[in-house]
Amino acid sequence: MNRGDVTVWVIDSSALIESKLIVSVSKQWDAFKVLEQMVVNGKIAMPRQVIKEVSELTHPDMPGAWASGVRGLLKHTLDADYDQITHVMNVAGDVVDANKPDEDADPYVLALARQLDTAGLKVRIVTEDRVDHDHISIVTACSMLGLEPPCSVRDFFNHCGIETLTKKGSDPG
Predict the structure, then answer these.
(1) Distance CA 3, CA 149 (A)
(2) pTM for this structure?
């Protein structure tokens, strides 16, 4: 699938967390306004578990405040169907990080992507979860579930025309 053909980008918590490391503070407002318009246009989806992971902090940062703020603007469901969640857990249940103290959003990201894909939409997950550790990554789970390979947040932002830092933590030129 060509990124230009993507209908809906399903955002993972790791992508939102990484976003603040690759977009300068002075450009974050503009970046998240671009993403907000994509939400309004139905081009971004997130399960409620992602919103919870990034926004229910004592002091949420820009990505957390944004995720909470666009909750009511999302055009796609916040809750994947139980059958989709069950399928994800049966096929790729090792995606759950047992070391997380709270509920892991990863199976819900996958289930929502699968649900939208099954409904005939062209879907791509945006994540930084790329390496298998004591649990499988979203990249591995996508392969097991027959979903398109995920996109990194940097590639997604570049696709959206959002300026990113040339290297993590450094200003461009």
Answers:
(1) 11
(2) 0.90
pLDDT of residue 56: 80
CA atoms within 13 A on the CB side of 11: 35
Q: Are 38 and 71 in contact (CB under 8 A)?
A: no
Please give the structure tokens belonging to residue 130.
């790329």
List pLDDT tens digits, range 106-144.
999 999 999 999 999 999 999 999 999 889 999 999 999
Instruction: At 19, give phi and psi (nearest 5°).
Output: -55, -35
- The full DSSP string for 1-44 is --GGG-SEEEEPHHHHHHHHHHS-HHHHHHHHHHHHHHHHTT-E
Q: 91-119 burial, b if ≥16 CB within 10 A, otherwise e?
A: ebebbbeeeeeeebbbbbbbbbbbbbbee
Contact 163/34 with Cβ under 8 angstroms? no
The structure tokens 């999302």 sit at 74
